[in-house]
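G., the chain you wanted modeled:
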Amino acid sequence: MTSWLAKTITTMWTGRRITIGAAAFLLTCSAFANPVVNNISAGQVSIQQAPGTTTINQTSQKAIINWQSFNIGQQEATHFNQPAGGITLNRISPTQGVSAIYGTLTATGQIILVNPAGIYFGPSAYVNVGGLIATTADITDANFLNGNYQFTHVSPYSGAVINEGTIIAAQNGLVALIAPGVVNHGMIQAELGKVVLGSANDFTLSFDGSGLINFAIDQPTSAPGHDQYGNALPNGVKNTGSLIADGGTVMISAKAAAGVLNNVIDMEGVAQAHSVAEQNGQIILSADTDPINANTVYVNATLDASGTGIGQFGGNVSITGANILLDSNTNINVSGDAGGGSAWIGGNFHGAGPLPNANAVVMLSGSSINANAITSGNGGQVAIWSENYTNMLGNISAEGGAQGGNGGYIETSSHNVLNVGNVQINTSAPAGQAGNWLMDPYNVLIDGLTTSGGSFSGGNPNIFTPTATANILYTTINTDLASTSVTINVGSAGSTADITLSAANTNGCPAGGCTLSWSTANTLTLDASNATNGTIHIDSGITATGSGNLTLNSGTGANGLIDILAPISLGGTLTLNGANVLGSIQTNSSGTINVGTFNLVAGQWTQVSSTLPAFSATNFLIDNGVNSPSGAVFLRATSGSGSGPYTIVDVYGLQGINTMLADSFVLGTNIDASGTANWGY
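Predicted structure as tokens:
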């Protein structure tokens, strides 16, 4: 039959619509599944077809081709031959159904495939192009020709873009799959470029001379996308394959109306954006953070933006959305040979932006974040932040380099409730100073419980809804003080907030109490100063057998309080910052002090009892040792009141007289002051 002979169909746009004989197309389509052209509406283009091959020759910078169908069989190939910087808009009629690509699609430039019914790249598909945008949303001819890449949903279609094959863009190129439903089970690669998977109805792509600079969702997904079999997809974007953009960016972005999708982003498989030379990679997962829409981001994947080459730094990973779940197989890697990168989960440090804040973040046991410096340099930065609830059960490290550099900075916080289970946090530095771990919820109870203060939904993700105070497992703090300093912040301006170290036989604490203990030079900071009336209650002992340090900061309001009801024993420094109010720092008979250095920076230490608790300090400072302290009062006496003399019985009470010169004092016994020779003033 003549249909199987080498045959060429050529069309050339000359400013008017070209009509091709229907008989020729029927013959061609009956013989093979090559794309079937309708007309060319802009640009200088010729199309040559032979059995199993289609070649599009484009001599203009831009061209628009309208296709009746665009299918490529497994043994077939379609090639776009374009000038440097050339781009072709291929608009496919949805009346012919989903475009099925099982064969080879290549292009020297960039191609846009638009089919509102959907686009499917099968397991045998091989795409190698300068750049690719595959979408179910349409763009007007005028917008395309003018470089205004605004795409809008085509009603009533609800197609999806699905890849099970291999898609490769040229260096610095773009691969973007955008539809109400997007699925990748295959491999997508854009070296030094950008890989974008997006779920939206309407969107805009912005470019400059270097390529894509922004992907913006203009209208969220209003109904699920449907796969090639007509089945509704439960997720906006789902990945189980590999997304690779070394030296570039992997971006997954989705926004959906409330109740439309189970997860707007379901990220499994691998996303890789290794550093290349001096160009760091970044991985971005971004969903709507409005809790009303409850857009959920589910991650159970490897997100690798590391830089392991000599002299390379780690890149950046950011995950934002209303509710975020890092499941047990999640591994986020932003380590770097010369310094760690950054990982922002649910927001930035303290929720202060510029990233939007999550409503809830859950990091399950088995998940991990690595922001280590490998050879040299400082550990990286990691933030886990939520407005409502953070449940921390995974492990995070930001170690300094083996040959030099300091540990990094890790924050696991919530504006409201924080739960920290048996996690491992490491900011150690073999050849430098350890970094810091900050926890910053509204209220904190350090105890022997792993989870309380609310309930889990039981869904996927299993989101925790808080109803009470945050819980931090005391053994977690002990473990992590071995490798990092730990800071717990609570409260906000004008509020009342508490940090409580639970007592023995309460809140899951053993008979010996929820004792905090470590043997390194790291510092534990309990900071309630963000709350005007923030309080700290020490109901179990704190012991640092090495040169460890403890800092206690209360609020500065009238009800700010540091209440020490258990022993504190440190080889390092105890620093106290309290309210300038009578009795703002107090102890009971169990509140003994045995420290290397005692430094009352601010607040009023008040101990008046016939039986004073033991007190010992190798170095004793008030207001950092200034001669005339202000804002700090130290009173330690066995009797007395404001109307009568206070009875002083040891050198610490004697030194405190300098802070209460308007009052009267008597000595209750002889005092040996020889130990003060090394005190700093």
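The CA atoms of residues 599 and 621 lie 5 Å apart.

Shout if anything looks off.
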